[in-house]
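Q: Hi! First time asking for a complex rather than a single chain. Here are the components, and I think there are two in total. Is that enough to go on?
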Amino acid sequence: MINLDTINKTEAMRYMGLGTSEPDKQISEIIDKCEKQLIKIIRPAYTYAIFDIKHLDNNIEVKGTPLVLTGNSVKQHLDGCIKVVLLAATLGIEADKLIKRFQVSDLTSALATDSLASAAIEQVCNLAEEEIREKVSPLNMTWRFSPGYGDLPLELQRTFLTVLNAQKRIGLTVTDSLIMLPSKSVTALIGLSEKPIEKRRQGCAICNLKNSCQFRKRGERCVGY
Amino acid sequence: MSAIDTLFNRKGFVYLDGAMGTMLQARGLKTGEIPEVLNITSAETLIEIHKEYIEAGADIIYANTFGANSYKLDECPYSVEEIISAGIKNAKLAAKDSSVLVALDIGPIGKLLEPTGSLTFEEAYEIFKEQIIAGSKAGADLIVFETMTDLYEIKAAVLAARENSNLPIICTMTFEQNIRTFTGCSVSAMALTLNGLGVKAIGVNCSLGPKELKPVIEELTKWTNLPIVIKPNAGLPDPATGTYNVTANEFAKLFKELVPYGIKVVGGCCGTTPEFIRALHNQLDNISCISEHKIIPAAVCSPSCTVEIDSPKIIGERINPTGKKLFKQALINNDIDYILGQAIEQTEAGADILDVNVGLPDIDEKDMMIRTVKALQGVVDVPLQIDSTVPEVIEAALRIYNGKPILNSVNGEEGSLNTVLPLVKKYGAAVVGLTLDEDGIPKTAEKRFSIAKKILDRALEIGIPKEDIYIDCLTLTASAEQENVMQTLYALKRVKDELGLKTVLGVSNISFGLPNRGLINSTFLTMTLQNGLDLPIINPNVSAMTGAVRAFRLLTNIDKNSMEYIAAYNDTKNDTQKQELSNITLDYAIEHGMKAEAKRITSSLLETKEPMEIINDIIIPALDKAGAEFESGKIFLPQLILSAGVSQEAFEVLKAHMVKADTAPVNKGKVIVATVKGDVHDIGKNIVKVLLENYGYTVIDLGKDVDYQVVVDAIKKHNVKLVGLSALMTTTLVSMKETIELIHQNNLNCKIVVGGAVLTPEYAQKIKADYYAKDAKETVDIAKIVLGA
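A: Yes, that's all I need. Here is the structure of the assembled complex.
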């Protein structure tokens, strides 16, 4: 079982719209209280599988599965890779329930918990990545790339989860409108390469949300570098 | 005797098969492909695998129909019926000339059910129904529901099976190492719920190996007398390679350790092969199963919360419109959030169970009950007590309740016994029996006792277990029938001692018509507890009442080391200190997020000011200031919401005051808000809602995942001039566009404001919205323009 002892509050506060400002005592207390409660109820889980890939002209085939990765961005992302790791992670349904409950009783706590949960799921992915790194060594890993990034269609989410048997393994499902439930969940693919991977930045240029991004409006970025 | 009864009645174990997926993958099935299609395209392979399991000694084989439902097969060239009948046919061919039984195997649908997911209980029922009809028609001998993680889904499945076939049912759910399923369902909740739904056997499958499942089985055996099924994985998988870590022999040896817990039906799940089933025979063939009849604890549950009635537990009485104007208004306005707020308040105050009564002459009680129970189960964990006298309402509520509820109530009248008890039996609920009959409430304890006895006998006759009957000896009003008050207590004691039944009692009526009602109530409560009351129905928000129960639990050595008591009252000192400290104004409280203060100050302001004065002169200016500071970046969203939350508290006080004084409610115009179809993110919409309400607008909240037509209908019905639509996903922007188109097609004189993370002003214009709001504050500004301030 995976346990988080703390949640990255700096990240959570950015998601809350606090920017980089120091929150006042009252907001800090709410965040601390929500963090404790969230840590107590979440059941983080992840699952992953490693597949060989075949680079075709316009897309990439994930061998032994019906999954075909289309678009230029994933092509670039997996350039030079020989395998791909499919990763799915979730905080579990309790996080959704807690946020919902707070939406009735205390909206500020709802916002804080929602943001904390978003930060927490990234931490769970980082833990998964550490484990994967050990397993696949000496191969090199790309950063995590998710369906919906760039022109990698979100529509492959369902097949992605089926291939990982994600409902059975970690209780993760997707709705008809491609929203993952439990909602604090992430799917991502990581390329594995024999050669060192060129450090490419996760720029805003490939992001679908660049025109409406709240972070960009404030002159910030959603990732820490 | 049916074939399955013969099988279950023998002394030894019943053997299931092992994994199907593992066998198919070994024969080249791609990960992620639909394995059930092979029923048609590779029938020979399937027959071969079934035969291997039969040769290994399986008594029951599962047909390859696990995922054959309309959702998972939606892009498949074959229909559900074609795949299922082929699957059953293959298994039957393999089993012919043997006594082996063929199970229609049904797994989870693949979509999450309400309240968290979007699939409704009724839709899930229909999906299962289609599978069950196909399987029965194809000649399955029994139905197996397995790998379930959602209690609600398995309840829909079992009801669909019972109502559409006569086949025996086996249910297994999948638990993780924390002894919960992924949706948070506990072992006790599974057992309590399924015990009453008429299934043949229950148990666990998948997720873990036999070793890790031991604590699950240990727990399960406490909660059921049904045969226990265990079908574990071959240990734990290595995610990188997909291989499992337990060999067939180790696997089978581990089963031996589980025999004392009463396992009866054994088999293997992921990673197991015929070798594993053979190994099980080697280990278990010479051992007899242990089956002893246990008394199952009296208990009710939601999926995640089981309340054992082994000591006084509080039933909260506040979800009930009787004598509550605000509650009635909320029911008439479909204001579910108000009811949810009442529920959360009571559970935080210490309620263990909540009574739910939504009966009002002018509303559709059945529809309201269904919506309320579903909504409540989405936000509170405590079990519910369904409170209604109308059979249709009772049945609807028992049906859609997730877990095992209490039904309030049946009584000694023939009509009531004949209509209510069969429903209680069918849905496996616990029931409150009122000691009254055709002649009303008997004056004497003797007569009430005999009605209790009658209810018990009639319930036992139709198979409702004794531990599920809770008797209410009925509280009389002391001011009217003082001489009979003690009769209630005498009857209660006798029911408890002589019939051995659990008891329940509404306490608050005792003081009706008297001054200082709280004193009478808490004193009477203490007396009832001393006479053996298990379930007091009280207002848990009154600290003297909850306190009496807590103190009683402490003094009778139920609350060991006074743990609960100390946890409940440790902070009391600080609270009073905080209150004494303050000498502040309402606008200061709003600005600084002080909810309790705001409530207190608002109440005292009402002594000298009119509600509208308070709203216009204090609340709105304070919010305007917060809004301006938010816009200028001086404060941020959390602080803005905090201020809005405080104003909301102040508003509640004003509303209660105005309802009492029968003045018209504050209304600066109506606004509809909705998260569009397909989208389930509603936190942004809810922030907008609160802010709008703070400015005196009446908000009609249609919720999330709202159908286009529902928006249009609501605009027409309420004659609304402004509707706010929210969408968070690029995939649901389409729904926003469709909704707007439908509104325009209907030529409605209603402006549309849109918002949400992925929206831009340009896109808003493109989909023909009238306004784009970048945040909640801006929505209020737009409302002011459209509806006036």
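A: The beta strands of chain A are 45-55, 59-62, 68-70, 83-90, 140-141, 173-174, 180-181, 185-193. Let me know if you'd like any chain examined more closely.
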